[in-house]
Amino acid sequence: MRFLDVDGLGPVSRIGLGTWQFGSREWGYGDAYAAREAAAIVRQARELGITLFDTAEVYGNGRSERILGAALGDERADVVVASKVFPVAPFPVVVSSRLAGSARRLGLDRVPLYQVHWPNPLVPDSVTMPGLRQSLDAGRIGAVGVSNYSLARWQAADEALGRPVVSNQVQFSLAAPSALDDLVPFAEREGRMVMAYSPLAQGLLGGRYGVDHRPGGVRALNPLFGTENLRRAQPLLDVLREVAEAHAVTPAQIALAWLVSLPRVVAIPGASSVAQVEANAAAADVDLRPDEQAALTAAARTFRPVSAVRTLVERVQERVGAGRG
């Protein structure tokens, strides 16, 4: 495993573990997964050197935090647990109360990384950040992060906090590479961290899905799995498969390796099984050649998915056509 040093956090594994699915029923994993498989995944992640575990108060209404805290057990204070506050009425007293709830569910006196889950469109960070600064000064959190912030809003949060906001968790993958334009250069310049969520684009970059084989469950709602987008993704997936074959690994591992080869980037894929967390962790040790890195980046920048609205229209037309057939 490879690590990134982050102020206030220490060494952070370049591959972490996202735990949205631990407590959220929409993924369809079932109660047996939450009761048994999730704990086994966390234990194996620790064996593999993973130190970054991401969760949030809204994941299963706190259930993800409880499952993660219990699974980490006595090691929960020795790793970087990152949770998030959902910024509804994010006044200092509210932020403090929500932090206390997350810490209790996680079994922690101090949450290493506490993040603002989304930028509130109506409440500026000058309102939100003072509460986080108070918690930081009191030692209740180790560092402050944000999620889904633009570069301008990240910088505004910095100013409002009065010290560095060390991380920004954003959707980032070969299928959604916009963070390359501004967030990654900023993080490299300022010594911050970009946390890539949905690093495999909900499975698109695993190379399993195509026009004739689409996912079910929550993934089925993702516009990336519309017919036109699956067609447009083929050149990117072809490059992924070619590089994966050269390294004798999977396309998903190459997609993760591309991310963590970028400066100041870590990835937090989820895992539905112990085997998957093992494969994810192994991606940190894949060394891409410069030409492979360049080819993947070029393919990512060339991929232009159609909008969610167009995908919805496309699916309606497909159903109408199937009904007529």
Report on this model:
This protein has 325 residues and is an alpha/beta fold. It has one domain (3-204, 250-287): NADP-dependent oxidoreductase domain (TIM Barrel, Alpha-Beta Barrel), CATH 3.20.20.100. The chain is built from twelve helices and ten strands. It has an eight-stranded parallel beta sheet with strand order 3-4-5-6-7-8-9-10. The chain has a two-stranded antiparallel ribbon with strand order 1-2. Strand 7, helix 6 and strand 8 (167-171) form a beta-alpha-beta unit. Helix 2 (31-47) packs across helix 3 (63-72), helix 2 (31-47) packs parallel to helix 10 (274-282) and helix 8 packs antiparallel against helix 11. The radius of gyration is 20 Å and the shape is globular. It starts with a strand and ends with a helix. The model has no long low-confidence stretch (mean pLDDT 90).
Q: Can you describe this structure in just a few lines?
A:
The chain is of the alpha/beta class.
How are the elements arranged and paired?
Blueprint: E1 3-6, E2 10-13, E3 17-18, H1 20-23, H2 31-47, E4 52-54, H3 63-72, E5 80-85, H4 92-106, E6 111-116, H5 125-137, E7 141-147, H6 151-161, E8 167-171, H7 183-190, E9 193-197, H8 227-247, H9 251-260, E10 265-267, H10 274-282, H11 290-302, H12 308-324
Parallel strand pairs: 3-4, 4-5, 5-6, 6-7, 7-8, 8-9, 9-10
Antiparallel strand pairs: 1-2
Helix pairs in contact: 2-3, 2-10, 4-5, 5-6, 8-9, 8-11
